[in-house]
Amino acid sequence: MITPSKPLRLLALGLGFTFLYAPILSLIVFSFNASPMVTSWSGFSLRWYAALFADQALLSAAWLSFKIAGLTATAAVIIGTWVGYVLARAGRFRGFTMYIGMISAPLVIPEVVLGISLLLLFIEMRSAFGWPADNGMFTIWVGHTTLCMAYVAIIIQSRIHDLDRSLEEAALDLGATPLKVFFVITLPLIAPALAAAWLLSFTLSLDDVILASFLSGPGFTTLPMEVFSRVRLGLRPEVNALATLFIVAVGLCVILANRVSWRKEPK
Amino acid sequence: MSLDQRLTSHTSADGDAFVRVNDLVKIFGDTVAVRSVSLSVQRNEIFALLGSSGCGKSTLLRMLAGFEEATSGQIWLDGEDITRVPAYRRPVNMMFQSYALFPHMNVQANVAFGLRQEGVDPAEIHDRVFEALDLVQMAGYSRRKPNQLSGGQQQRVALARSLVKRPKLLLLDEPMSALDKQIRQKTQIELVRILQQVGVTCIMVTHDQEEAMTMANRLAVMTEGQIVQSGAPQDVYAFPRSRFVAGFIGSTNLFTGTIVVDEPDRVAIESDDMSRPLVVNHGVSEPIGMEVHVSIRPERIVVSRERPTQDANWAHGRVTHMAWMGSYALYQIRLDAGKVVEASVPALMLAREDAPGIEEEVFVSWDADSATVLAS
Amino acid sequence: MKRLSLAAALPSSRTLAIVPPFLWLLVFLLLPFLLVLKISFADLEFGSPPYTPLATFEAGTVQLSLHFAGYIRLFTDSLYVATYLNSVKMALITTLCCAVIGYPMAYYIARSSPRVRNYLMLAVILPFWTSLLLRVYAWVGILRNDGLLNKFLMSIGLISSPLDIYRTDLAVYIGMVYAYLPFFILPLYASLVKLDLRLLEAAYDLGSRPWTAFWQITFPLSRPGVIAGAMLVFIPSVGEYVIPELLGGANTLMMGRVMWNEFFNNADWPMAAAVTCVMVLLLLVPLALFQYNQVKQIQGERGAR
Predict the structure, then answer these.
(1) How far is C16 from chain A (nearest CA, A)?
(2) Looking at the complex, does the CB of residue C122 fall below 8 Å from at least one CB of chain A?
(3) Which A residues in the span 158-217 are in contact with C, Cβ-Cβ below 8 Å?
(4) Do B103 and A267 touch (CB under 8 A)?
(5) Do B89 and A175 lie within an 8 Å CB cutoff?
(6) Are A177 and B161 within 8 A, CB to CB?
(7) What is the C-alpha separation between A216 and B123, in angstroms, rounded?
(8) Nearest Cβ partner of A86 from C18, C245, C280?
(9) Which of C134, C259, C287 is closest, CB to CB, to A108?
(10) C44 Cβ partners below 8 Å, 6+ apart?
């Protein structure tokens, strides 16, 4: 096999990855900076981590975000997997193009559009039947789920497409109803992809600023909303500390998940 | 006896067919995959659908299994119309080309799967599973996962899984295609032995004509969505009805000529490829003067240094190529008129006589029983 | 022969399997957008809801009132027009930069051995999983006049006074390319990794040089991936809010900021709705291209079975 040129490869990948990781490294390094001037190093210190854990506003926002993210991920995986399965296995049906159109839309449509649309929906609903009475966790959850299910659908559709169809047919042949085949054969075999989709939805929900801003109500401030309002005003070292914790946690999870999936993923 | 009469005496009466397919059609969008196919299979018979890829045999098999819905036509199994019955309710089981063993279950769970769907009592499931595994000699591997088994072992588990439910009809999709050529023949014979021991009606699909000839009681040759000829393997081989079938099953030499003598049990054909006429020992429905094709199998051609004593069915030529195939030699001989024929001569015969080599002059001959006039 | 029965009248099990998830999208995606369309024709009004209804029923007649004021303002006010054009321009440049940086990366990763490939793609995806907000925030610390980049360049003597990057269009470009690069690489990588290397070997065998083989074989075959990646970058970029807000200047005009301001600062909902509609209209062509590409991908995959 002809391999591409080594020096070009090194250059392209080297520059690319430096670009991707330099900001992340700077966040981590300066979270340990003793000085409140984020970009002037004055010594090693853990004070910002201490400040973080004393910051009630941030902590309660974080808790809210985690709750919403968990609910979002679960709902997105359920609906998104359903859609992904239909796209992969249902064959051609009337409205197929529209189906794909609707499920791909959240992937590309600017979030402000999605935010405004949903907010207006909830307002109309409020004036028409008085529910939902206030914007808050429910409305944010709806917005996040709509966004995340699109990602889940694409991931699951791709995974099911790669799944050997004859496994499902064999199960049918042996007497299992289509519903049973889905739960007993298909789902176990795509379990790693389901887990990945859940985690992705969790992360997307946890990180979302725009939808949460549009769809939240009084007393419901999510973590990204809180962080955003602070960083608009300038550099904040406790945000560096938060970022580092976040990056490390996510990094460990992704690497762990990847190891597990490589070992267990069946063909 | 005419050719047609000879053939019909070998086909079974339709009335007591265990599996009957009536005018089955399958259309995908613009493509007609299966064109009005009809066939019947007897109880406990092994029936092969033989054809190259794209001929429609796999689609036909999938319709029998229930994975494709027929566009029109019916499928009858043991007196019941199963055309619209979904796959998971048909008393039909299939052994897949890729075996399709569930990777997240061990051998025992795989074989038990079908019985669990029926709601069979666990104790009975256990007994039947091991009965099936004993049949294929895989009982000792019950706890292994499919990725811990060799190809041949996986095949046996797949067979056990498809037999354990005692289906009325067993479908085999290219059963030998995943195995090495060396073990294929042995496996074919063993598979037939197991099927006959269990006593199950079987329809198999293959592109390998040797496989079909070895395993099947009857076979049907398919091309472009249709069955072009069906019957017992020896009959289809010996009496192909068309150039396609003649060339598909085994190889053959084809002569084109016009009928000069037409008698009920003897026909003579004059061909540009030969100076002497070709005489065939059966009657034909075509009239004198009609252009027909004559098929002669390479193994029926006798190669000799001496001039043959018969009046017809021989020619003179020069050896252009010879290939030693181990148990026989394949000769290519250019006749005086220019046509090249293939003759396969058993090694035994070559050892006895002084085998002719390349560029040597030889005579080819055959008897009137060895040739068939083809209808198309 | 057709038989009339209840079973025939009820939706088939296939319909039951396909329709329900569709309902969520119908209610929470299609319906809201139709509402936006409706409200864009309304006028601002006090009360709840804070806009006029589209149709009123009065004394036996239905009055339809469509207010075009919002749309007229959009097309005549030079600021709005400039903002639209600038948004598209910035999105285009971002897409181009992502392509220039992302294609070589995706290519070289796809051509690596499977083991290395996995690690490299993991390294590409890892930042994607960490908070975008926080990573954009990191660029603030890098690009500011007293930030890391300027400190570094001054310390090695390349420049004598800090570069003004923060709060300019350049900072926004850097931030956008940074944020959207993985979106370009991922679908492109998926496309490139499916490339049968034997096609390239056949090309070399027939006398083609590596560069020609790339343009005539690899690139055309990777086109669906390129289109998907480009659309995944371009379309959301047009309406981007967070990055221009954190890194851009007061005159970095982008649609996302306008929409946000109309809503949160001016509370002019019909206006915001009109802006939204025009933006979606702008994006209709790229959206259609993206959907077409998606459908072809999904159908092409299924056809290959």
Answers:
(1) 11
(2) yes
(3) 161, 165, 178, 199-200, 203, 206-207, 209-210, 213-214
(4) yes
(5) yes
(6) no
(7) 58
(8) C18
(9) C287
(10) C50, C51, C268, C269, C270, C271
Tokens of B170: 């067993």
For residues B283, B288, B293, B297, the Cα torsion angle rounded to the nearest 10 degrees is 40
ipTM value, please give it. 0.84
Q: Which residues of chain C lie closer than 8 angstroms to A75, CB-CB?
A: none
Q: What is the pLDDT of residues C86-107, one digit of tens each?
A: 999 999 999 999 999 999 899 9
Strand ranges (E), C55-166: 55-58, 61-64
CB–CB contact A188 B117 (8 Å): no
Residues of A with CB under 8 A from a CB of B: 164, 166-167, 169-178, 180, 185, 188-189, 266-267
Task: Give Cα separations from A2 to B347, B350, C107, C119 (angstroms).
Answer: 47, 50, 14, 21
Q: What is the DSSP string of B49-107?
A: EE--TTSSHHHHHHHHHTSS--SEEEEEETTEE-TTS-GGGSSEEEE-TT----TTS-H
* CA atoms of B220 and B231, how far apart (whole Å): 7
Residue from the list B100, B114, B118 with its beta carbon closest to the beta carbon of A167: B100
Q: Judge: A170–B89 Cβ closer than 8 Å, yes or no.
A: no
Residue type at B220 in one-letter notation = A
Q: Report CB contact under 8 Å: C31, A2.
A: no
Partners of B32 in the beta sheet? B27
Could you report the per-residue pLDDT of B275-294, keeping only the tens digit for each?
A: 888 888 888 888 888 888 99
Q: At what angle do helices C78-110 and C114-129 cross, to 10 degrees?
A: 150
Residue C56 phi, psi dihedral angles, 5° rounding: -120, 145
How, if at all, do strands B218-223 and B226-231 pair?
antiparallel
C-alpha R_g of chain C: 25
pLDDT in tens, B322-376: 998 888 899 999 998 889 999 998 888 777 767 788 888 999 999 888 888 887 7
Residue of C nearest to A162 (CA): C301
- At B248, the pLDDT band (50, 70, 90 cuts) reads confident
Which residue in C48, B203, C295, B184 sits closest to A87, CA to CA? C295
Do residues B115 and B177 touch, judged by C-beta distance below 8 A?
no
Q: Is B302 in a helix, a strand, or coil?
A: strand
Contacts of A164 in chain B (CB under 8 A): 98, 100
Contact yes or no for A169 and B165 at CB 8 A? no
Measured CA to CA, the distance from residue B177 to residue C12 in angstroms comes to 38
Residues 6+ apart with CB under 8 A from B132: B111, B160, B161, B163, B164
* A132 upstream amide cis, omega within 30 of 0: yes
Contact assignment for A39 to C21 by CB distance below 8 Å:
no
Nearest CB neighbour to A90, from listed C18, C30, C235 = C18
How many Å apart are CA C143 and CA C163, to the nearest integer?
9
pLDDT in tens, chain A (267 residues): 456 778 888 888 888 888 889 898 888 888 888 887 777 788 888 888 888 888 888 899 999 999 999 999 999 999 999 999 998 888 777 778 888 888 888 988 889 999 999 998 998 888 888 888 778 899 999 999 999 999 999 999 989 988 989 999 999 999 999 999 999 999 999 998 898 899 889 989 999 999 999 999 888 899 999 999 988 887 788 888 998 998 888 888 877 877 776 665 544
Q: pLDDT tens-digit profile of C252-269?
A: 889 898 888 888 888 788
For B28, the closest chain A residue by CA position comes to A92
Q: A12, C36: Cβ pair inside 8 Å? A: no
DSSP conformational letter for C50: S
> What does the buried/exposed string (b/e) look like for C165-203 if buried means 16 or more CB atoms within 10 Å of the residue's CB?
bbbbbbbbbbbbbbbbbbbbbbbbbbbbbebeeeebeeb
d(CA A80, CA A156): 8
